[in-house]
Structure formats: C-alpha cells, structure tokens
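Collaborator request, handled under Task 6.
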Amino acid sequence: MPTTGQEAGRPQPQTTVEASGGPFIRHSQPGRAPQYVVSGSALGSIITQPLVARPGYFRNLRVTHTFVTGGTITSGTLQADAPYNVNSLIQLKDAFGTPIITADGYTVSNLLSRYSGAHGLNNGTNVPSNLPSWSTVSTSTGAGQFGYSLPLEFAKAYGVLSAANASLLPTLQFNLNSAAAIFSASATGTFPTVTTTVDSDFYWLPEGVAVEPPGLGTTRQWVQQQLNPTVPSAASARLQLPRLGGYLDTLIFTLRDSTGARVDAWPQRLQLYVDGVPLIDTTAATTVAGSTTYQGELFDDMAIQFGDISATSATSVTTSRPTGVIAISRKNSMAQQSLGLLDTGEAYLSTNPGTLVELNGAPWGTISNAPGTITAVIGQVVPTGAVIQGLPEL
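Structure tokens returned to the collaborator:
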C-alpha cells in the first residue's frame, strides 16, 4: 500500500516567500540563534571563545553575564561602575581585524545601550537596569545578572556583518576585571565566577531572491580614545579628539578624576568645535541657590533625545544620567529624539582624517582630585562607497 508520510530528506517548502522586488528586509526574516555559553570564568580571566556561522547577516550580539556565587563575601561594596565594569576591556573585530567595538566594559555594556540607539528606546528600555534580565549583584554573595547588546546595525538592515561564511566571522574577546575593581579592594572571601552567554540577532538569507542588505560592508565603529590634554580644575582648556574619518552619529564623553572615578566637572558653557568653528555652544552647569547643578540646555537635550529624565530641587539634581557622562546625538535627523534604527542619516557629521574636533570649557568645573581626563567613544559610520542617506529599507 502506498504511504502518505513525508519522504526522508525532503523538507517542507518555505511558506513565507515574498514576490520579487522591494527592499532586503521584505525578503529576509529577523532571527536569533545561540553563539556560546562559557561558565565558571574566574574574575581576571580572558574569554576568547570563537563565534559560529549563521545563515545570514549579524545584526548585533546579545550578551548576558551571570554572577554565580561561590560563597560569602566580607566587606564587599559595589564600586561606582559595577557591575558594568565586570569587563575591563571588550573587543569586537571583523574578520579582517578592523575594530568594530574597542572600549572598557562600563562604556560598552552601559553607555552604548543608553545612547547608541541599537538596544532599547528612550522609554527606559535603553537602560540595562530597567530590563527583565537585570538582577542586582549582591555584595554578600556576588550573585546577580545583567544583559546588553554589542551593536552592529545602526539603521534598519544597515551596518550588518556577513555571518554565513565560517572562515570570515568576527572575533570577540572579554577581559574580565578583578574582584577588587568590582567589590572593592577591602573585600575578602569567595568571589563569584561569571557565566557569559552570547546570542546573535541576525537576518536570515532571503529565500528565492538575490538581494543584499543596503551598503553591505558598511560598519559603525566604536573605539574609545582619550582627549588631549587633561582637564584642569576650574581652569580653561580646549581638548582635542584624536583624528577621525567617517560619519559621526553619536558622541559620548566620560569625565574622570585622577583616581579614575567619574565626576561631574562640566563648565558653565560647553563648546564643541569642528575645525575651529563652535558647532555647539550650550549651557551645561548652572548655579541654583548657591550650588552648582547640571540643569543646562545640554542635559535638557539628553533628556529629550535619550530619555534621561531629571528630578530637580532647589539645591541638587537627581537624574538617571550616569555621573560624569554626556552624549550628543546626530541620530535625530527627522525628530527631536533618537529613534533607534529609524533614522535617515541626514544629520550625521561628515569628517575626514584631517578634521579636528575639540571640546572647550572656559573654565571647567572644580575637580578635587585633579587633573581629570575625558575619554570619548564615537559612533563612526565607515561606509562602503557613499553613505546611504534616507531610509535604506524603502
């Protein structure tokens, strides 16, 4: 008797195939698949697990760090950057060794989520501690968890990396920080190990049609660099960024004192110079009831663009903005807000290797442990050919 079962080795046809024509995202499906899980990593170690191929294009890599308790911690105190500083350094490079993300763990896992527009939106989901994956790290056992994204895609389907060729995959390295940097130098006892889970968000290869993501080969690179010279206490100085060369969509600056602690010592007015011209000249610090607060236009802009909502009183400011951090967005071409992957790129700041970008304070605020240093991590779009402006998915 003939059988009605499915023949071995003959899969069911794909039922979501679109008719020919139209943009890449019409013919692809967003998916997610695991990369690896590394457990039992001691603080201070290095994770260099290779990534695996996926049939499509990487949009971003999703990372979750879980602190697994090994016993009791005595005199433990979470440091100001903890738990985001569980990595002293994170490096993501493409298959040819080009740095896509190179920065300290605090910057990558906290500030890129908040300000890159690639992980959550400004309704609070861009702050890792507001997400369901967050579990506050215990100072007595070390147990806790948080998740974040390593962003590749900066506009819809734009900036992705090829994932289907196993010999041409990006590389990812985590340098775990010391226990003292996370729980304080005075902490003793048995510190937790770290379980690192990496998944990949990707676009599946289109079915039945030959179409590629827009501008394939274009990347947005985040490389952390220090401004020069150092920041004096209550004195005037113009600080230079290292030479750039691309289209800048986000500028994030972190001010630290000589001990490495993040501090707010921003000037009354802050200027951003491009080739000697003050592109932005805005208020930052203000004086309310005799006390210096950070309620100027710069921080209003951050609240509007990124959702850093502030609650103010007569003498102080309490804000979700991390101490010592400011950000300027160029991902708001058609709106006042940074709308994540929805942007036309019209307002990106075009630079080349000869462009000089500077921050000026006249004077900077008071720094108890002077001098201070400012590090910049800049979202820099390096296109293949001309940068695509408008909405590439239309």
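The cover message to the collaborator said: "Helices lie at 24-27, 105-115, 179-183, 297-306. Confidence is low (pLDDT under 50) at residues 311-319. Please let us know whether this matches your experimental observations."
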